[in-house]
Amino acid sequence: MEEEYEVKKIVNLPTEEIDRIQETINAENLELIEKAYEGHRITSQDRNYLIDFYSDGMGVYREIYRALYESFKRPDRTCAFDPKTGKIERDGNGKPIDYGLKAVTPFTCTRLEYVDKFNNPIYVIFPRMKQASRAIEKLESKYNKDYVKSMQKALDAYFEQEDREAFCERIQDIPQGNTKLNDILRLTITSKYLSGVERIYRVISENRGQDIFFINENETRNRFSLPLSKNEKRYYDIKMIMHQQKGGRNLNVEVQLKIQALYEGDLRTHKIYEEVRAIEAKLARERSFTDPVEIRQQEAKIKILNNRIRKINENAIHKYNMMVLDKARRIEDDGYRPLRIEPDNTDGTYNQCRQHISREYLVESYDDFDPQTAFSADNEINKLCFLRMIGKIDSDFDETDENAYKTVNYKFSRLSPAEKERFNGINEIAHRYAPVVQRKILFRRRLESMEISPIAPTTKERD
User: Fold this and answer.
1) For a FRET experiment, which of 86, 98, 121, 143 has its CA 20 to 30 Å from that of 391?
2) pLDDT: is 287 or 437 the higher one?
C-alpha cells in the first residue's frame, strides 16, 4: 500500500525534500515495471509507455499544470482535497486553507479553485497519480486481453474470407493495450452549471496546441448528449483525452468535465461501483464452477446496487435542477421585483429567467413535467435536495440508508421561516416556468424518437 502524505505536512518541507520523496516513489515504480516486464506480464510497448509516466512523476505533473495554465491561468486557491468525501481542508473558523501550488505533487490530492466571468466557481481536482502496480494490473487483466481477443477475431475473419489486404488493414486499427490506459492521471474539472461545462470544453479545445497538448475529438465522449434510454445510470460528464508530447515522452491524461452537484453524487456512488466491480470480477473468474443459484443471487445483487447508483445520480440531478430554479427565483426576487420591473410576458415570466432555465435545466425524464409535484414539500426527495442545497445536510449523506429520511424529515421540519419561504419560492418558479421545462422535455423526446443526439454539451431550444 502506497504511503499517503498529508498536504499540510508536505508544504512545510523544503522543495528539495519534496523532490526526494518523489524520486523514491519513482524508483519504486520503475522497479515494479521492470519486474512486470521481465515476468512477461506486460509488453515492451507497455513498459516504455509506463516509464514515460513513472520515471519522472514531478516532471509529468509540471507539464500537466502547464497545460492547465494555458486554459485557466493561475488558480485563486489551492486546497487539500479528500477524494473519498469531496471535502477540502478548512481552518478553525471554517475557512478553506490555501496551501499554494507547492501542494500539487504526484503523491497528494489537491483542488485548484478558479472563478469564471459569471462569478461561478470552477474546480480542478488534481488527484494522486495512479499507482504503478494498479496500472500494470489493468494492462495485464483487461486491456492486453482485449487486444488479444480483437486480434483473434481478425484472424478468424482472415481464415474465413482469406482476404490478406483486409486483414492487414484491420489489425492496424486494433489499439494496443497501453493506448487505452489513459487514466494514470485523471483530472476532474467541475462547474456549477451546464453552460459552464460547455464553456470549459470550448476553452480547453480552443487553447490546445501541438507544442503543449492536443485533443482528438474522435476520442471525446459526451454523455450530456446521450438519450435517456442509453444512459441507464443517469451518469453525465464529458470525457476527453489530453495528449502531450514533451522531451520524447508520450503522456495521455483523461480529463472529465462535470457539473459540481452531479460530481458530489459520483462521490457517493464510488463505493457502490467498487462493490459491483468486485462481484462482476469474481463471477467472471468463477462462473464456470459456481452453483447456478449463487450466480443468480450475485446477479440480483448487482442489479440492486446498480439501481442504487441510478437513484443517487437521479437525486443529484434533481438537486441541480432545484439550484437552477432557485437561481431564477433570485433573479426575480433580488433583481426585477425590488426595482419594480414588469414581467416581459403576460404569464408573469421574465425572458432572462426563461433563457436561464432553458439553457441550464437537465431533463430528468421524458414524462410530461408536473409542477404540482416536481418540487413540492410533499415529496421527501425534494426535502432532501433542498436540505443539501442550503447545506443543512452534508453532500456525503447516504440517502440509501434505511433511516435516512427520518433525518431528512426532522431537519426539514426545523427550517426557519426564511428557508421555508425560499423552498416555496422554488415551487412557485416551477409552476410559473413549467412551459419552459416542458418544451425542453419535448425537444429531447423528439431527438430520442428520431435517434438524433445533440453534438454539443448543451443545445439551446427556442422559448
Assistant:
1) 98
2) 437
Q: Measure the CA dihedral 219/223/224/225, to 10°.
A: 70
First to last CA, the chain: 55
What's the pLDDT tens digit per position in 103-150?
999 999 999 999 988 899 999 999 999 999 989 888 877 654 554 455
Q: pTM of the entire structure?
A: 0.86
- Between 461 and 228, residue with greater pLDDT: 228
Q: How far apart are CA 375 and CA 385, in angstroms?
A: 10
pLDDT at 212: 72
Tens of pLDDT, residue by residue over 239-256, are: 999 888 777 777 889 999
User: Which residues pair with residue 114 across a beta bridge?
Assistant: 122
Count of C-beta atoms within a 10 Å radius of residue 219: 13
Whether residue 279 has pLDDT greater than 60: yes
Q: ∠322-398-297 over CA atoms, to 5°?
A: 120
For residue 184, which of 38, 84, 57 has the smallest C-alpha distance? 57
CA distance 325 to 423: 10
Dump strand ranges (E) for 90-185.
110-115, 121-126
* Tally of CA atoms within 13 A in the half-sphere of 460 that contains its CB: 5
Q: For strand 110-115 and strand 186-191, is the pairing parallel, antiparallel, or unpaired?
A: unpaired
Measured in degrees and rounded to the nearest 5, phi and psi for residue 112 equal: -90, 130
Whether residue 438 is predicted with pLDDT greater than 70 in this model: the reply is yes
Cα–Cα distance for residue pair 214/338, rounded to 1 Å: 49
DSSP summary character for residue 82: E
CB count in 10 Å sphere of residue 143 = 19
Give the pLDDT confidence score for residue 162 in this predicted structure: 59
Please report the pLDDT score of residue 102 as a whole number.
Answer: 93
Residue type, 304: I
C-alpha cell at 8: 499540510
Strands 186-191 and 249-259: parallel
Burial group, residue 454, by CB count within 10 angstroms (0-12, 13-18, 19+): middle
The span from the CA of 363 to the CA of 454, in Å, is 13
Q: Residue 221: enclosing H or E segment and its boundaries?
A: strand 221-222
Residue indicated by cell numbers 443545445 = 459
